[in-house]
Amino acid sequence: MVGRGYSIFDTAIGRCGIIWSGTGVVAVQLPEAREIDTRRRIFQVHPEAREQRPCENAELAIEGVIALLQGGDPDFSEVSLDAGGVSGFNRRVYEFACSIPRGETRTYHEVAKALGASGAAHSVAQAIAKNPYMLIVPCHRVLETGSYTDRLSPFGGVISKRRLLALEGAHPVASKTLFEVLLPVAPPRPST
Q1: Which pLDDT score is estimated for 7?
Q2: Which of 18, 16, 24, 84 is nearest to 51 (CA)?
Q3: Alpha-carbon torsion (19, 67, 129, 8), positive or negative
Q4: CATH tag, 88-167
Q5: DSSP letter string over the chain?
Q6: What residues are labeled active site?
Q7: CA distance 153 to 166
Q8: What percent of the chain has pLDDT over 90?
Q9: Which residues in the chain are classed under CATH 3.30.160.70?
Q10: What count of Cα atoms within 13 Å lies in the side-chain half-sphere of residue 173?
Q11: Is this model's pTM higher than 0.85 or not?
């Protein structure tokens, strides 16, 4: 195989896409409202990818995504990822996200602290928002303190973190401290 390939596949939430290279999975595209929009998003981000039959690694990832979206607990540890375009910090964030057990969540601050970069919560949030490996790297398990947005990322499609966490049986509200419940965190300021 030369270059990048992609494939569209059926899941319990709609038709997802996967993009891969000879090195590994490059990205997972969650379904948009219509399949044509999912394909359009793939072409916008990966114009060099050509539709083809999934390689063995991509097929393993597809099987895991399908299982996860049916409420299963797949093991993605054998799926190779192509991290060629991913910064070192983002890789560390993604590795940490993969260590979060199913049904549990962590905040951006907790991830930053665990990575030894306690002042880097904003950088963690940016890394999560840029996660190209949706579901394989469970960015939906990393939340803003006190709440969580309903969208995964600009490329997350129509499914929300709330829905993915519900599939896993997570209850992120229960993880709030008493202080957070009594004094809700102010919404983040828009970035300029």
Answers
A1: 98
A2: 18
A3: positive
A4: 1.10.10.10
A5: --S-EEEEEEETTEEEEEEE-SSSEEEEE---SSHHHHHHHHHHH-TT-EE-PPPHHHHHHHHHHHHHHTT-----TT--B--TTS-HHHHHHHHHHHHSPTT--EEHHHHHHHTT-TT-HHHHHHHHHT-SBBTTB-GGGEE-TT---S---TT-TT--HHHHHHHHT--GGGGS-HHHHHSPPPPPPPP-
A6: 139
A7: 18
A8: 61
A9: 5-69
A10: 4
A11: no
| CATH 1.10.10.10 domain range(s) in the chain | 88-167
The mean-pLDDT minimum among 15-24, 64-73, 163-172, 180-189 falls in 180-189
DSSP assignment of 44-94, as one string? HH-TT-EE-PPPHHHHHHHHHHHHHHTT-----TT--B--TTS-HHHHHHH
What's the pLDDT score for residue 42? 95
- The reply to whether CATH 3.30.160.70 applies to domain 5-69 is yes
